[in-house]
Amino acid sequence: MIYAFQSFPANPTIELIDKCKSMSELRPVHARMIKTNLLNHTFAASRLIAAYAQSGGVSGALTVLRGVEDVNAFMYFTVIKGFSESWEPFQSLVLYAEMVSRLEDCGAFKFSIPSVLAACGRVLEDGVGRQVHGQVVKGSLQCDMFVMNGLIRMYCEVGQIGVARMLFDKMLSRDLISWNSMIVGCLRVGEVALARALFDDMPLRDLVSCNAMIDGYGKCGDCKSAEQIFNTMEAKDVVTWTSMISAYALCGQSRKAVDLFKEMLILGIRPDAPAIVSVLAAIGDVESVEEGKWMHAFLLGNGFCLSDGFIGSALIDMYAKCGLVEEAYDVFRNVSFKRNVGDWNSMISALAIHGLGQEAVRMFQEMEGMELAPDKITFLALLTACSHGGLIEEAQFYFEYMVEKHKISPVIQHYGCMIDLYCRAGLFENANRMIDSMPMKTDDLAWKAVLSASLRYGKTEIGENAAHQVARLVPEDSGNYVLLSNLYAKAGRWEEVAKLRSSMKLKGVKKVPGCSSVVIDGALHEFTVGKEAKRDSG
Predict the structure, then answer these.
(1) What order do you get walking across the sheet with 515-520 strand by strand?
(2) pLDDT tens sequence across 238-259
(3) How far apart are the C-alpha atoms of 362 and 364, rounded to whole Å?
């Protein structure tokens, strides 16, 4: 026990606390307890604090705590735990430090340690986490599994896998939380091989560990390993199906993602928002208009809110990829009452994809009129629209506006849009100045934009330099050699064309054949240059 409750007679006000189900019901009881001095009793105050925390009113619990003279560790534990699970996890760290300095019963602190460590992980505050670790050692709590699991989880979340693994290896006994914390932590920092080794060593696997591995393999592009785990699982929940669908979508196996989603529905499993977002992205990738409209009807017919979980944004993106801008716009207008920044970003992106630059600019202006703050993605979509629409002055204005008005630092994609804009217009000097001004290293996409534009405008010398830069960054990229070869051919420099093709053979660089696909009667037909059509019936 954390502390001994004082005896307390039955009281109708105290009994009311258990009947309250919301903060609005608790407040009158709270006021009555203040008026009758019931908060001076530890038991009564503890009950009220717990009731506030359980109803989601952790700020109310803190108010009660601040008004109690004879505060104890249980009260602190309740409020600390509430804040660690709220939108203000940092408050848990403040309260823990206050508790340690205010109370003398160090043995009672251990009950709050897992919640404090969880808060450290959420706010990525490893400094406080290390201090708590020191208190764990000082208090000889290394044998407490709950405390050790909290430490492992905290170190994993702040990216210190080595420390987490050391603690894990020193544990005399481990439970599923210990194993899963290590596996999820390894996957979070991309240590897939280490996660798999732990997964294989687990005495007993559960849904959490299997789902984590499927998700991790999907994010690193290893769909085959994700499939292997998925197919060997005896029990699956909605997270399992979502993880596998997302893995297919991330790995570019869009057809499999759509088919698995349909299988999920046949089995009577209601999809969650992440599964819907993934399958909409997959449908957009294969540009299946028929399945896209079927999916839209499914969402409306099964009570899914287009404003929840970015579903509306994903639906807009899907229609845009399928070339249906009007349908995308209809979805956008239908989520008008709960439209978020993601919905605006998707609609501006849809207009950008189809070269509707002026419309995208007007959409952005309408967004600002709604007093919504644009983010990095908003400006990326807007600059892309300006690039595709040839709106040079507008792009220059919004690039500066992003920095000066909204204090958003450009990332490499923003610079890439500006470089692409200048290259499309043949303004190579502007493009070079933009490249020189970049605070980060230029990527291959920027140089490819210069190379493609050099071919269009017949700028051989500029194109040669760009091709050299691409080859330095991605030497195995066959597209770079093809563009440079076409540039030489356009200039009539056939000797360089022959030398370049010989160089490709020596380096083992092969031209990637063109490929396209189309859905006919529910089946995906793929067409590759030099091969017979391939039909995937699913």
Answers:
(1) 515-520, 523-528, 534-536
(2) 999 999 999 999 999 999 999 9
(3) 5
Count H helices and E strands in the chain, helices first: 30, 3
**What span, in angstroms and rounded, lies between the C-alpha atoms of 268 and 4?**
50
Which residues lie across from 525 on neighbouring strands? Answer: 518, 535
Distance CA 328, CA 320 (A): 6
**What pTM was estimated for this model as a whole?**
0.74
d(CA 72, CA 64): 13
pLDDT digits (tens, 9 = 90+) for 82-131: 999 998 999 999 999 999 888 876 667 788 999 999 999 998 888 889 99
Rounded Cα–Cα distance for residues 107 and 130 (Å): 19
Torsion angles phi and psi, residue 525, rounded to 5? -110, 120
The Cα 310–Cα 299 span in angstroms is 13
One-letter amino acid at 328 equals A
Q: Residues with Cβ < 8 Å from 270, sequence gap 6 or more?
A: 238, 302
Long-range contacts of 428-437 (CB under 8 A, 24+ apart): 428/453, 428/454, 428/457, 428/459, 428/462
The angle at the Cα of 533, spanning 531 to 534, to the nearest 5 degrees, equals 110
First-to-final CA distance of the chain: 59
Helix 376-389 to helix 392-404 angle, to the nearest 10 degrees? Answer: 170
CA dist., res. 250 & res. 248, Å (int): 6
